[in-house]
Amino acid sequence: MSHSTSEPFSLKSIFSLKSLLLKFIGVLCATIAIKGFMIPNHFLDGGILGISILVHEFYHIDVSIPLILLNLPFVYIGYKKIGKNFAAHAFLSLIILGILINILPIPPVTYDHFLTAIFGGVFVGLGIGFVIRGGGVIDGLEVIAEYTNKKLGLSTSEIIMAINTTIFLVIAFFLGIEKAMYSIITFFTALRVSDYVVDGFEKLISLTIISPEPELVKQIIVNDFNKPITVYKGERGNLPGNYGVKYDCDIIVAVVTRLEMHKIKKAIAEAEPKAFMFVQNIREVGGGITIKKNSH
Question: Which pLDDT score, from 0 to 100, does residue 178 have?
């Protein structure tokens, strides 16, 4: 995701059919998690959602009230630090969430604690992920993490994890260690699911190939799959028992999506079985010829 404080305000982007549909699906999933799993079982999650449910547990007020009120300062921070479009997307997502929580009659799905922790986390993750794909957020911690990762160089997930660790310690102190442990399961499930929904098959991966037939590999990647490559000059050999035996070689690197990676690896392995390949996850990509991600 990329934001800029100088980007022009765009109502067309905010109210586009795709953006609204993704927000609605995400908010629906979050509402199912809150009313169908979390509240009936007195379960908590991390972030503003967890704090809002905690307020609901203590003071018995509608969970949508603290959920919206606690998020508003973060929407303002998003407006000041990230941009008008981002803040508008976030505010619209919160309004939809408040409406659905109040009008949808969702009965408790299960009272099993383990199923609640797992599937509550799944629906929270789906909700957060789809809303992000639609350009908004429903948890203020995502705003802080989105802005802070530009300053500290940490990933959004790492920042959210650090903040939520503090929240879980508070939960353990006031509600007991068992509630805190179930909350951690819910949080990690939601984190993994939301990451996959946001990135999905578009997650970028670095594929590196070292082959005795480099031109064949280059042709497959560039001509057959229409992907740009970078070539480093390296050295093969220096194997155990034959140290000192070495050859110049090309080290071919391509940035591809998760889905493309499997297809390209299969094609290279069939054409050149001796090719050595390894993959690395990429935290962030910018510039050059890359796949354009949705921006807010």
Answer: 84
